[in-house]
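Here is one chain, start to finish.
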Amino acid sequence: MQAKYAPQVAALEASLTASPKDYNLLVAQGNLYLDWANASQNVLQSTSPTSNPLWAKASTYYARALAIQATAAPVLGDYGISLFFSGDTSAAIAAGEKSRVIDPKLDVNLFMLGQYYGASGDKAKAIEAFQAYLKVSPNGQMATQAQQNITQLNTQ
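Its structure:
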């Protein structure tokens, strides 16, 4: 897996050395680390995501990008994902809610907000976020999981 991602990371890092405040390069590097973290997590399913340093790497680049342009809902959503899997649930909620204000129909963000709130112990907000996901994307890729999460939260 490293053979696939490391050369791309190095190439983007070289570009960022020349243009350290290039928003598009920062987002691209964050996305690359997020993809790499997700792919490696799928391989290492028995390992806690918080032990994978690639999530934190992604969040670093997203934070730098958001310091330049703080109104991109998908970037805020991805930032929230990287924060959550780095172990910072409250910061993930904050990023997810900012993303939601900008784009209340960003379905992946709504689903992930349900995950964040569920992990934080706020069942009511988790259920609301999953229901918002289902309203926006009733036949979406995560619709079945959202419904299962709602059912599980209602029985706890």
